[in-house]
Amino acid sequence: MMQHERLLKVLVIGDLGVGKTSIIKRYVHQVFSQHYRATIGVDFALKVLNWDHRTVERYGNMTRVYYREAVGALVVFDMTRLSTFQAVLKWKGDLDSKVALSNGRAVPAVLLANKCDQRRHGLCPKLPKLENFSREYGFVGWFETSAKDNTNIDAAITCLVKNIMYVE
Ligand code: GDP
Ligand code: MG
């Protein structure tokens, strides 16, 4: 059987320290550490899929800002820090201004409220309902995630990949 192999470029964007590197390491290597070096701006993930439900992954950790030819994005904030949530729309706007699908539509983006294991220090009362917020601002979905506890990382990325495969 012929296998149709695709290369998907997925961006992981959000403010400093929200957990971008941790999410990527958790997803790809199933590890978590308190001690990644800070990355400013954008992390970059590459994933190769065989769309017969078997998945092969490849990962490149690049700190350069590379929006070109991305087909999807995770926009991450830290649910214990309001400023990182306030920056979400800046990141989404940045994304939409720098990259679009070949058909001109916005690339699918999933909103991640990371560090949900810290919920007791969280902003829940101050946050708008993420369901409404994410729909209003054009995200294809949202998840409360923890790279530390491995909560919803796979679910968020599966949601993104499904949207990437369906919109193209
Ligand atoms: P980046 O700058 O967005 O890449 O953020 P990092 O991945 O470097 O994470 C910044 C800090 O937050 C590190 O100390 C991580 O260990 C911590 N961190 C990341 N994700 C989580 C999480 O889900 N829960 C908790 N408690 N800490 C996290
Ligand atoms: Mg980083």
Features:
alpha/beta; six-stranded mixed β-sheet; binds magnesium ion; binds guanosine-5'-diphosphate; 168 residues
Question: Quick recap of the structure?
Answer:
A 6-stranded mixed sheet has the order 3-2-1-4-5-6, sandwiched between helices.
Could you please describe the fold and organization of this structure?
With 168 residues, the chain is of the alpha/beta class. The chain has five helices and six strands, in the order E-H-E-E-E-H-H-E-H-E-H. A six-stranded mixed β-sheet has the order 3-2-1-4-5-6, with helices on both faces.
Helix-strand blueprint:
Elements: E1 5-14, H1 20-29, E2 42-50, E3 54-55, E4 72-78, H2 82-86, H3 88-98, E5 109-114, H4 130-136, E6 141-144, H5 153-167
Parallel strand pairs: 1-4, 4-5, 5-6
Antiparallel strand pairs: 1-2, 2-3
GO cellular component, one term: late endosome
Subcellular location: Endomembrane system; Membrane
Function: The small GTPases Rab are key regulators in vesicle trafficking.
